[in-house]
Amino acid sequence: MGAMFFLHHSSDGENGEGRKRRGSHMAHNSELMVDPRSGFCRSNSVFHSKRNPISLPQKEFIDVTTFISSRPHHGQTAFIDAASGHRLSFYEVWRAVDAVSSCLADMGIRKGHVILLLSPNSILFPIVCLSVMSLGAVITTTNPLNTAREIGKQIADSKPVLAFTIPSLVPKLAGSNLPIVLMGGEGNTPAPAGVVGSLEEMMTREPSGKRVGERVNQEDTATLLYSSGTTGASKGVVSSHRNLIAMVQTIVNRFSSEDGEQTFICTVPMFHIYGLAAFAMGMLASGSTVVVLSRFEMDEMLSSISKYRATCLPLVPPILVALVHSADKIKAKYDLSSLQSTLSGGAPLSKEVIEGFAEKYPSVKILQGYGLTESTGIGASTDSLEESRRYGTAGLLSPSMEAKIVDPGSGKALPVNQTGELWLRGPTIMKGYFSNPEATTSTLDSSGWLRTGDLCYIDDDGFIFIVDRLKELIKYKGYQVPPAELEALLLTHPEIADAAVIPFPDKEVGQYPMAYINRKAGSNLSESAVMDFIAKQVTLKLITQPPLSSTYLM
Hints:
The chain is an alpha/beta fold and 554 residues long. The chain has 3 domains: 5-55 and 386-469, Luciferase, domain 3; 64-315, ANL, N-terminal domain (Rossmann fold); 473-553, ANL, C-terminal domain (GMP Synthetase, Chain A, domain 3, 2-Layer Sandwich), CATH 3.30.300. The strands form 7 sheets. Strands 3, 4, 16, 17, 18, 19, 20, 21, 22, 23, 25 and 26 form a 12-stranded mixed beta sheet that branches. It has a 5-stranded parallel beta sheet with strand order 8-7-9-10-11, sandwiched between helices. A 4-stranded mixed beta sheet has the order 6-5-15-14, with helices on both faces. Helix 4 (125-134) packs across helix 8, helix 7 packs across helix 8 (273-286) and helix 10 crosses helix 12. The longest helix is centred in the N-terminal third of the chain and has 17 residues, at 90-106. The protein starts with a strand and ends with a strand. It comes from Vitis rotundifolia. The chain crosses the membrane at residues 114-139, 271-293. InterPro entries: AMP-bd_C, AMP-bd_C_sf, AMP-binding_CS, AMP-dep_synth/lig_dom, ANL_N_sf. GO terms for molecular function: CoA-ligase activity. Residues 485-538 form the AMP-binding enzyme C-terminal domain.
């Protein structure tokens, strides 16, 4: 069976707090036999993180803003606007947060009130979020590209009492009757109807020394971000201060560096958990500098790396692929010598992309991350190039995170190397969906397990591999066929440039898998050749799935 280690759960500290929150699923002072290689516990079929656990504050009453501001670091510059070069020092950030918090309190904003933030990326974005949360009020963000109707739907659901936005987006709030605070208003330009102030004016006010804030419990709600969830329409994800504090601790531990201060390029949207967690809060707590791009533009991103000597570039896989394909032109035009690492999220990277990037940018290591809005952006990660070279993996479980692989049909928890739905449990898992008990119950069980909706397996070394989305499975004669797995097989063919597999309805078998295929230039690949190729691949891999029923070649 191999070596085992004993996982001891003490009656105090972080584990004790986590156990109190999750209920009595684990007795005090219990010892569990855990395989040190995979992290799998045979006695309860739970996978445990192999990372060092995070520590959480023992104070019951502390908000995430206070927690971040109290962390020691040696950083000087907190945020830089990539376009203008305007900088905010850590002192200026925290003074602004204090001033804006005082103004909001004077306006009657109280604990539990929801505040809407409608804005593109900005160095002011974190100031609004941190100010709101310091009062125990709740921040809800929305995509500035959303239509007025989509934003109105979120407003009707979350019921905010105040909105922060930029002048050009004010029309999208028309009809909401929300009082508006403008961000980045132009000098003497008349304020639109409904505007009650400007963020810049709030930031210049003297903070009130007499203000007595309401006590904020770690379990109080801090953010209300909207997500499609594991299935269905967009829902409000309720995250607590404790969730955010645990997220911050995870990020700080992951990016703590002995090589001095780090400079990150923020290309991902701050209204999304990825941007909000990492850049509006996590990097601030670590003492790092964040260079903020208002929107993604390849030239501006590359110029900013050179101009501000950035050390880390978080991005999504398509941008990483573009960096590989255009590497020679990029390196001829831009100085990327300061770059030490890239952080990719959204989908696991293939061997070809990882090795292609390592070849073109040998001094830059690739890190990957996996998380959901429902898990406050935390779930799994690769923290070195060596770990990323476990091709196709989402990484090892994040610190203090537990996982189960559950058979979707029987509900049985599975051991290593068996595919099922990934369930996660830990201090970053959401409280639930806002005003939606049915969706909450279907996603969170009574013991705090989050059903991710991702079909995964965990290998002998504890690495998570995502096979497909549970709801995207093709149902063929009772078999569950993951389209992503068939797509991956198709892409190994030397004459196939791209492929997509979809379900095709059939009265007798339920659904057939059907592929749309884009041939590489000059290829005369036939439909029958594709069918034969897949049939051989499926047979060799002993997968109990049918071959493709048909293909559409382009």
